[in-house]
Automatic annotation (TrEMBL):
<keyword id="KW-0132">Cell division</keyword>
<feature type="binding site">
    <location>
        <position position="193"/>
    </location>
    <ligand>
        <name>UDP-N-acetyl-alpha-D-glucosamine</name>
    </ligand>
</feature>
<keyword id="KW-0131">Cell cycle</keyword>
<dbReference type="GO" id="GO:0051301">
    <property type="term" value="P:cell division"/>
</dbReference>
<keyword id="KW-1003">Cell membrane</keyword>
<keyword id="KW-0328">Glycosyltransferase</keyword>
<dbReference type="InterPro" id="IPR007235">
    <property type="entry name" value="Glyco_trans_28_C"/>
</dbReference>
<dbReference type="InterPro" id="IPR006009">
    <property type="entry name" value="GlcNAc_MurG"/>
</dbReference>
<feature type="binding site">
    <location>
        <position position="288"/>
    </location>
    <ligand>
        <name>UDP-N-acetyl-alpha-D-glucosamine</name>
    </ligand>
</feature>
<keyword id="KW-0573">Peptidoglycan synthesis</keyword>
<dbReference type="GO" id="GO:0009252">
    <property type="term" value="P:peptidoglycan biosynthetic process"/>
</dbReference>
<feature type="binding site">
    <location>
        <position position="164"/>
    </location>
    <ligand>
        <name>UDP-N-acetyl-alpha-D-glucosamine</name>
    </ligand>
</feature>
<keyword id="KW-0961">Cell wall biogenesis/degradation</keyword>
<comment type="function">
    <text>Cell wall formation. Catalyzes the transfer of a GlcNAc subunit on undecaprenyl-pyrophosphoryl-MurNAc-pentapeptide (lipid intermediate I) to form undecaprenyl-pyrophosphoryl-MurNAc-(pentapeptide)GlcNAc (lipid intermediate II).</text>
</comment>
<keyword id="KW-0472">Membrane</keyword>
<dbReference type="Pfam" id="PF04101">
    <property type="entry name" value="Glyco_tran_28_C"/>
</dbReference>
<dbReference type="GO" id="GO:0071555">
    <property type="term" value="P:cell wall organization"/>
</dbReference>
Length: 352
């Protein structure tokens, strides 16, 4: 039996694609181990999948000044030695990394031990962790064709994003029973795995107008439930959704979302008309802005800049999206984008 180590963490975007690969890896006969951070959210998510998990020390690599910049390099070095020890003992045939800062020492340790490494970059431009990891990678998978220009030609390959199979098999009736919603169309809001204060605030400010036309499922992030709105008819709040997500997607007629690459690729695979509010360049490296522009240009998404939220009627924008939903569905239906699971599994088989 061949062995594989998966790594990636920090946000759900660095974890859920790995989870999407698990059924196909098991079907292909791989024994699987996961290396993540000691205290990251990936530990609970992966252990819930009954996958052996090892935590290592992890430090964040920052482009800005922070006192932790002086201590975190030591954590990275410690993580490198810890990862090397785990990899040497497990002796995998291959390592697959979904990125995040915890993945860097794992990828480096694997390369030092002459083990093939495949990494996956979700965004149009590679993040700092994957920029470093790419130097040690055997192959680099991408979501967007635009990404290929930023990577070594002999390593980069367009695979698409691995989509969890269960998301494609949601039960609309089960969601109706769970929510108790009536005949109105359903709007779902996704603010990212950690939630978005800006998106949450904008939605709640416009909530009364939105509820005139829609029932609302709001995935608002940990600690972001507004208790004053718990009894609001037609409005349900969740910090995080796992097993019910596939059914909520099946029920949703339109979606408001951040523009994280994994989420928007799921929206594309599910053909869900969507309004994207990308994280601003002031609060990020601008990857969500580029992701959103790509989807808007392809006709898959309607996009509103975070900075303009205060000056528009969000309820009207959502209503317009719903009225024109078939235009977006048709564009997404004509997309060549496919579930990247098969492409990535074939690559793993090839190099393991």
């Amino acid at each position: 039996m061949k062995k594989i180590i998966l790594t990636g963490g920090g946000t759900a975007g660095h974890i859920t694609p790995n989870i999407a690969l698990l059924p196909a890896l098991k079907e292909a006969g791989f024994d699987i181990k996961y290396i993540g951070s000691k205290n990251g959210m990936e530990a609970g998510l992966i252990q819930a999948q009954n996958i052996p998990y090892d935590g290592i020390s992890s430090g964040k690599l920052r482009r800005y000044f922070d006192l932790k910049n002086f201590s975190d390099p030591f954590r990275v070095v410690k993580g490198l030695f810890e990862a090397k020890k785990i990899i040497k003992k497990y002796s995998p045939d291959i390592v697959f990394s979904k990125g995040g800062f915890v993945s860097v020492p794992v990828v480096m340790a694997a390369a030092f031990l002459k083990i093939p490494v495949i990494i996956h970059e979700s965004d149009i431009t590679p993040g700092l962790a994957n920029k470093i990891a790419s130097k040690f990678a055997t192959k680099i998978c991408t979501n967007f064709p635009e990404t290929l220009q930023y990577l070594p030609k002999n390593k980069a390959i367009l695979t698409g994003s691995p989509i969890r199979k269960e998301l494609l098999n949601g039960d609309k009736e089960a969601a109706c029973k769970l929510t108790g919603f009536g005949d109105k169309p359903t709007l779902m809001i996704i603010g990212g795995s950690l939630g978005s204060v800006i998106v949450n605030t904008a939605i709640r400010k416009a909530l009364d107008d939105i509820l005139k036309e829609f029932n609302v499922i709001h995935i608002c992030g940990k600690g972001n439930v507004d208790e004053k709105l718990l009894e609001k008819s037609g409005y349900l709040q969740y910090e995080y959704v796992d097993k019910e997500l596939k059914d909520f997607f099946a029920l949703a007629d339109v979606v408001v979302s951040r523009a994280g690459a994994n989420t928007i690729c799921e929206l594309l695979a599910l053909r869900k008309p969507n309004l994207l509010i990308p994280l601003s360049g002031a609060a990020s490296r601008g990857d969500q802005i580029l992701n959103a522009e790509s989807f808007e240009n392809a006709g898959y998404s309607k996009v509103i800049d975070e900075e303009t939220l205060a000056n528009i009627s969000l309820a009207m924008e959502i209503s317009e999206l719903y009225k024109n939903r078939q235009k977006y569905i048709d564009a997404m239906s004509n997309s060549d984008a496919t579930n990247g699971v098969e492409n990535i599994i074939n690559l793993i088989k090839q190099y393991s």
